[in-house]
């Protein structure tokens, strides 16, 4: 069963710009025509660099942003334009965990109050207790009496996970939840999320900029660049055989302990809003004329593999 | 090679809480030394002690010998001549380490006017050259911008340019890539290697990622709980590392291989 279905989702932000003729509105498409599905008990990784629209996508899915175009179906219900009141009964099934655990927990409330608030808000009596939720994330129950400032970064992030878990959600959206942690805490959290998926039967969308982290947790990967999906497929296939030059760059950027790692990547910031062709073309080492004139479409290569690049058309992959 | 920096029996404590315990190590000229460990291991405190930027509540003992001076006994006035010129620092969060109220130009030229006694015109020219060195396109334009107008990667490049502005002998890089995404991280690492070769500077590279350290540093010092556990040559990290803690660090690295993780 598909837990989540996202069809042609688009979100535009306006950037006011002063020109010679006065003020002008410019649109920035943070998420542009993105479609994907999340299966029951599946972990979908979303990868891309800063500014690729990963976080916007995460916030759109939990309806913290209003989508401009497209559809979001959650458990076969169209939630694209539901208002706050209509959304409320669905909120307990779909939870988000934020990047920075220092900002996402109220500093004036104890851990158990933070979690209890959620239970009361959704009027869930006795399904999951605070202690059970804390235990599920590997904390003892005396953590309940502490305040967030008494916890380390890793512990805070565990509390944030417990707060999401206590509702027994069908889908958890984890937005860069390990990026502020050191490698040991990070691995602990990744292990925890895998266990949660098994024992609590939740689906997840795991957003990260690091392909190596995503490799340890997700079943499928969605690679995003400037608001577009450039490649998607099974995680191991993406990593062992990346098709899109941007995915290759992401794979290259992971430092390898045994080999001689040399990330080769040139960087030039350009305004890509005026570009007609592929948005990656000006950074792509393989770009040819067509890349600058027409935008590549996301094309199905295999059952679970899609890529948006002209190269594979040119080299006869289709 | 001559020793540039000798740290002997460094102890740092806050009231009764000892955060760095008897740490000793040496840095040679033109060497990149990695300081690796998890959060709270005392890596940053060690780095900050060398440049004397610890909070005033910290009590420090031991010896930090840099070019025949014991940095811990220098007067603040003398230390100010070294800090920013001979020893510089690159912070973790590039956006926070730059002053939001000043243009990039002023932030780079200030330090050159102070330490190298350059006049405004010379300093601006040198700043443009530096920004060019660190791979910033259009330095003429970037120099007139404020930090919030630049991306995290660009800000970190500016911070690197400032750190190398006065030909320092030692740069302390405190998790310079942690706040950046992986692609930018790769570029910043390449840049730091390039600058290190060009200026023959020594770098203390503080990170929690052992794989990253292994690719940048010639030697790696592993720290945990305020103690320096072992120093290993990066090339032989997989064979030479004997301490169980280093093994744990190695096994918690996220990799692109499946099943390489040990529980």
3D architecture notes:
The complex is a heterodimer of chains A (318) and B (263). Chain A is α/β, with parallel strands linked by helices and 318 residues long. Chain A has helices at residues 54-61, 84-91, 101-104, 111-121, 130-136, 153-165, 183-200, 211-215, 235-240, 245-252, 289-293, 311-314, and strands at residues 2-19, 22-39, 43-47, 69-74, 77-78, 94-97, 171-175, 203-208, 220-225, 228-234, 299-302, 305-307. In chain A, the strands form two sheets. Chain A has an eight-stranded mixed β-sheet with strand order 6-7-8-3-9-10-12-11, sandwiched between helices. A four-stranded antiparallel β-sheet of chain A has the order 2-1-4-5. Chain A is built from twelve helices and twelve strands. In chain A, a hairpin with a 2-residue loop joins strand 11 and strand 12. In chain A, helix 5 crosses helix 6 (153-165) and helix 6 (153-165) runs parallel beside helix 7. Chain A is 31% helix and 26% strand. Chain B has a single domain (5-251), classed as P-loop containing nucleotide triphosphate hydrolases (Rossmann fold), CATH 3.40.50. Chain B starts with a strand and ends in a 12-residue tail after the last helix. The interface between A and B is large, with 43 and 40 residues.
């Amino acid at each position: 069963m598909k837990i989540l279905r996202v069809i042609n989702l688009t979100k535009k932000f306006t950037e006011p710009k002063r020109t010679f003729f006065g003020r002008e509105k410019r649109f920035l498409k943070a998420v542009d025509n993105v479609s994907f599905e999340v299966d029951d008990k599946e972990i979908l990784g979303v990868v891309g660099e800063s500014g690729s629209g990963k976080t916007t996508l995460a916030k759109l899915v939990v309806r913290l942003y209003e989508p401009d175009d497209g559809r979001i179906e959650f458990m076969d219900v169209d939630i694209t334009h539901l208002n706050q009141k209509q959304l409320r009964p669905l909120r307990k099934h779909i939870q988000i965990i934020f990047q920075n655990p220092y900002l996402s927990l109220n500093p004036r409330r104890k851990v158990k109050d933070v979690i209890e608030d959620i239970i009361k808000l959704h009027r869930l009596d006795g399904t999951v207790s605070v202690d059970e939720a804390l235990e599920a994330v590997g904390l003892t129950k005396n953590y309940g009496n502490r305040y967030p400032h008494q916890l380390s970064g890793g512990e805070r992030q565990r509390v944030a996970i417990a707060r999401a878990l206590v509702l027994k959600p069908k889908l958890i959206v984890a937005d860069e939840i390990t990026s502020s942690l050191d490698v040991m805490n990070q691995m602990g959290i990744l292990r925890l999320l895998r266990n949660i998926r098994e024992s609590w039967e939740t689906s997840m969308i795991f957003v990260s900029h690091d392909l190596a982290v995503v490799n340890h947790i997700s079943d499928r990967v969605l690679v995003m660049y400037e608001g577009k999906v450039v490649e998607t497929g099974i995680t191991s296939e993406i990593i062992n055989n990346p098709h899109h030059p941007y995915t290759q760059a992401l794979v290259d950027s992971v430092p390898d302990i045994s080999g001689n790692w040399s990330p080769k990547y040139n960087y030039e910031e350009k305004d890509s809003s005026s570009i007609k062709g592929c948005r990656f073309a000006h950074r792509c080492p393989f770009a040819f004329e067509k890349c600058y004139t027409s935008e590549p479409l996301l094309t199905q290569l295999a059952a679970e593999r899609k890529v948006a690049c002209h190269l594979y058309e040119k080299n006869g992959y289709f | 090679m001559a020793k540039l920096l000798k740290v002997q029996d460094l102890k740092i404590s806050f009231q009764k809480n000892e955060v760095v315990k008897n740490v000793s190590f040496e840095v040679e000229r033109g060497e990149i030394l990695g300081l690796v460990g998890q959060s709270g291991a005392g890596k940053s405190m060690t780095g900050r002690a060398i440049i004397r930027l610890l909070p005033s509540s910290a009590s420090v003992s031991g010896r930090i010998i840099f070019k025949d001076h014991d940095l811990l006994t220098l007067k603040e006035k003398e230390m100010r001549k070294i800090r920013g010129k001979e020893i510089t620092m690159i912070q973790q969060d590039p956006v926070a380490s730059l002053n939001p109220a000043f243009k990039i130009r002023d932030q780079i030229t200030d330090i050159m006017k102070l330490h190298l006694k350059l006049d405004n015109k010379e300093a601006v020219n040198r700043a443009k050259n530096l920004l060019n060195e660190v791979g910033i396109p259009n330095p003429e334009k970037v120099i007139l911008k404020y930090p919030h107008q630049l991306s995290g990667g660009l800000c970190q490049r500016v911070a690197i340019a400032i750190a190398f502005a006065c030909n320092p002998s030692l740069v302390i890089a405190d998790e310079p890539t942690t706040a950046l995404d992986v692609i930018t991280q790769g570029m910043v690492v390449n840049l730091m290697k390039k600058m290190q070769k060009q200026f023959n500077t020594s770098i203390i590279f503080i990170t929690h990622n052992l794989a990253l350290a292994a690719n940048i540093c010639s030697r790696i010092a592993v720290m945990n709980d305020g103690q320096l556990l072992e120093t290993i040559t990066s090339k032989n990290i997989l064979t030479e590392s004997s301490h169980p803690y280093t093994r744990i660090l190695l096994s918690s690295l996220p990799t692109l291989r499946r099943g390489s993780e040990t529980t």
